[in-house]
Design brief:
- The structure is a single chain.
- The protein has 381 residues and is mostly beta strands.
- The chain has four domains: 105 residues, Jelly Rolls (Sandwich); 110 residues, Jelly Rolls, CATH 2.60.120; 105 residues, Immunoglobulin-like; 35 residues, no CATH class.
- The protein contains one helix and 31 strands.
- The protein is rod-shaped, with a radius of gyration of 39 Å.
Length: 381
């Protein structure tokens, strides 16, 4: 009879340690040693893989919980290899290897890889409000065929998904659960990347609306692979304030950030650039005292520092405006900045006052060649 390394009851089970690398334990079951038990603990939720190979007779395996109740069983006929693949929560477990008929050596191959991602939409790993870039490492395979991640966009944004580090073929999807029913319905898969082999998968989408999104990582066929999931979120800028400017006719005023302000969750004020699509027609826009022309730029930092001013041309106009586009380098927003001009009652101007010479006792007409007053706001009548 071969040496018996495993225990023959739950209380005498051989204690083993599982890692992400496959560990192999060799032993024997037969007429004089019908059952072998192994015991292991998991300190994290894990993808568990077990195979029983090298059989010369019929033997089976069972996965048991901490109380010895069967969770899963593999019982194929003859000398076929047995396997169990599943996701296990934190806890204590047992493996039972037992003789069905005959005597046989065996190899027990086991691994457990921490499973940080959920396996359904409702149990997806919550990444919270995602800004910038995050990398998440995990595993998919026979024991864990779906990994789901959930993230929120508080603002419209561009989203880039990169799946790499693959040792076998895996795919990725970006999903928007529009009706929030926890099920992937028709039209809710925004994009799928399914290249062949170990090629990296990529998804790039811009101008996604604020909301909750999901990423699904899944194997192509019956394979096992670790992976790196890289998510990059670039929120779009928001024109938070665009209240316009009010000033008196013929005066100059500063356009401050209380009148025009764009915010961005991952860009500084210096990185937010305004470009003039049109310029004022009844005045001049200045940056730090220098007139701005069509197509020239200024930044949110310029507005914050009080460097942008508008000078009205003293005409009898009551409004003005300029059109602009503001960009963070990826996203662009087009807006109009309105200017209201308060008219001023200008002092009348004496244009001509030459006086009049005539003979005594005569009369003549007093014309505007002799006396003329003008007023921009008032007609001659």
């Amino acid at each position: 009879m071969p040496t018996d390394y495993a225990g023959n009851s739950l209380s005498r089970a051989k204690k083993i340690r599982l890692t992400s690398q496959v560990g192999t334990y060799k032993d024997w079951v037969g007429s004089s040693d019908t059952t072998d038990y192994y015991k292991f603990d998991l300190t994290t939720r894990s993808s568990f893989d077990l195979s029983l190979t090298g059989l010369t007779a019929n033997a089976n395996i069972e996965l048991l919980n901490s109380k010895g109740k069967v969770i899963l069983r593999s019982a194929k006929s003859g000398k076929s290899a047995e396997s169990i693949a599943t996701t296990l929560e934190i806890g204590t477990y047992y493996i039972r290897t037992y003789r069905q008929s005959g005597n046989t050596n065996y190899k027990l191959n086991l691994s457990a890889i921490t499973d940080s991602a959920g396996n359904t939409l409702s149990k997806s790993r919550n990444l919270g409000n995602l800004i910038g870039t995050g990398t998440y490492n995990d595993y998919i395979g026979k024991s864990d065929p779906n990994d789901y991640y959930r993230f929120n966009l508080s603002n419209p944004a561009s989203v880039n998904v990169l799946l790499n580090g693959l040792s076998a073929n895996a795919n990725v999807q970006l999903i928007y659960d529009a009706n929030r029913n926890g099920i992937i319905d028709t039209g809710e898969i925004l994009r799928t990347s399914a290249n062949t082999g170990r090629t990296s998968e990529t998804i790039n989408l811009s101008n996604l609306a604020a909301g909750t999104y999901y990423v699904r990582v899944y194997p192509s066929g019956s394979i096992n692979t670790k992976y790196n999931l890289n998510l990059s979120v670039n929120p779009a800028p928001i024109v938070a304030t665009n209240s316009g400017l009010t000033l008196n006719e013929g005066t100059q005023s500063t356009i401050t950030n209380s009148l025009l302000q764009t915010t961005d969750l991952n860009n500084t004020a210096t990185q937010l650039t305004y470009t003039l699509n049109s310029i004022p027609t009844n005045g001049i826009l200045f940056r730090n005292g220098i007139a701005l022309s069509l197509g020239q730029t200024f930044t949110q930092a310029d507005l914050n520092n009080g460097l942008i001013t508008y000078q009205h041309n003293d005409s009898e106009t009551t409004s003005d405006r300029f059109n602009f586009r503001v960009s963070d380098g990826v996203h662009t927003l087009n807006r109009t900045f309105n200017i209201r001009v308060n008219p001023i009652n200008d002092v009348p101007i004496v244009v001509t006052n030459t006086g009049l010479t005539l003979d005594e006792g005569t009369s003549t007409t007093l014309t505007n060649n002799l006396l003329q007053i003008t007023d921009a706001e008032t007609t001659a009548a």
